[in-house]
Amino acid sequence: MPSDTTSPAGTPREEPAAEELSPALPPERASSSGPGAAPGADPGGGGYRAVFAVREFRPVFAAHLLSLLGVVVSELALTVLVYDLTGSPLLSALTLALGFLPYAVGGTLFAGVADRYPARRVLVTCDLICAGCVALMVLPGTPVAGLLALRCLVAAVAPVFTGTRTAALTDILGEGELYVLGRSLLRLVSQSALFAGFGAGGLLLTAMSPRGAITVTVATFLGSAAILRLGTRDRPARAGGGGGGALLAESLAGARAVLGDRRIGGLLLLFWVPAFFVVVPEALAAPYVDAIGAGPAALGVLMCSTAAGHIGAELYVGTVLGPRARSRIVLPAAALGLLPLVLYAFRPGMVLAVTALVFAGAGAAYVIGLDQWFVQAVPEHLRGRAMTVLTAGLMTVQGLGMALAGVAAEFFPVHQVVAYSGVAGTACTLLVVAEVRRTRVRYRSARRG
């Protein structure tokens, strides 16, 4: 299934004390273990190894890795298939865009599923639906319109799956240190899949037809479903089961409750706003390489640079820094993360452009601490819907960012579009940081009351 993706960002120089930034919680909520943590796991040490020591996390991780590689391979193969059938670059590009845009629909209309039904049932059902959709894509008689419609359906199911899984991690790992590192591991796999998945997809397409490569994804979805069904516990629904009431109304009500809370809304924006701007250089990598006269290999390097910076920063923060230090860097790292893109104003060559993108990717260091703030701010009964809204919004803003970057590049030089995205993104992120600071005081007072 789709991934936990997050992107870098930018925030103010002033750095408050860690205890001021961390939401005030009762001692039992602030602990690293929490109700779902595995007995015997040491949340106070061991880093990522402590997460893998939790037996139930291992199948979740394996299912994520398996299905994510399949998704990346199928996206590449489907793009090639649509182009082979139509000869249209527009429809080929639209195939990729459809991986982003339906997230908003699925995350809004179906968010209630994440809390209304048991998590394991939701996850397995989502995998089976996606396996069925991909199986229909493989059929020779499926028209291009059908391929695109099936692509939309898979993308609409994705935020429900990801939101449900993210909420279920609090049952498996607790709400503290293990949860934060577990989320980080899934994000690292998602970023790494860009390298492994596209490489594997390219190799598969040299050995078989696009439809044959897509067939591989059917097996990955079925494998993920089997692993989750056999390797995770069957827990009751968060909202009391699939009782009465319209699912659509319940989903919309949950989204309103999440977005209507100023504290949660501010944290959501801190995830979304930097992600909207950081995808601009990726979206414009091909025209920029052409503009500076670099070779085809340069395109692949630019496309991977942000992900490389993200992976390196997140590994460092998750391995070296403790919870208090991660909390301290959230706002400063978010504020500064997009500033490296301003280097594009000088129309840099490959070395400086790659450097700027790696540092922009490293801005993602703030996300681990932000994960902790978010899970602490969301009430338990809304957690599935909140995680679904978070995922849907994140993917949607990245798709919009790519689309608007393309529009802007029709009227302005590519290097200017990227540089201005760094400036505008930093300014917008600073406004979000100010809101997060304001809501922090009210949140702490409410928790104490």
CATH superfamily: MFS general substrate transporter like domains
Q: How many strands appear in the DSSP assignment?
A: 0
- Rg, Cα atoms, Å: 21 Å
The rounded distance between the terminal residues' Cα atoms is 41 Å
Q: Provide the succession of SSEs.
A: HHHHHHHHHHHHHHHHHHHHH
What CATH first level would be assigned? Mainly Alpha
Number of domains: 1
Examine the secondary-structure arrangement and name the CATH architecture.
Up-down Bundle
Question: What is the count of helical runs?
Answer: 21
Largest sheet: none
Mean pLDDT: 77
Poorly predicted runs are 5-44
Write the layout of secondary structure elements.
Blueprint: H1 18-21, H2 27-30, H3 48-52, H4 57-86, H5 89-97, H6 102-109, H7 113-116, H8 119-138, H9 144-173, H10 177-207, H11 210-231, H12 247-260, H13 262-278, H14 280-283, H15 285-292, H16 296-320, H17 323-336, H18 350-362, H19 367-377, H20 383-409, H21 414-448
Helix pairs in contact: 4-5, 4-9, 4-10, 4-11, 6-9, 6-20, 8-9, 8-11, 9-10, 9-20, 10-16, 10-19, 13-19, 13-20, 13-21, 16-18, 17-19, 17-21
Describe this protein's structure.
Pfam families: MFS_1. Residues 19-41 have a biased composition (Low complexity). It is built from 21 helices and no strands. It is mainly alpha-helical and 449 residues long. The chain has a single domain (18-448), classed as Up-down Bundle (Growth Hormone, Chain: A).
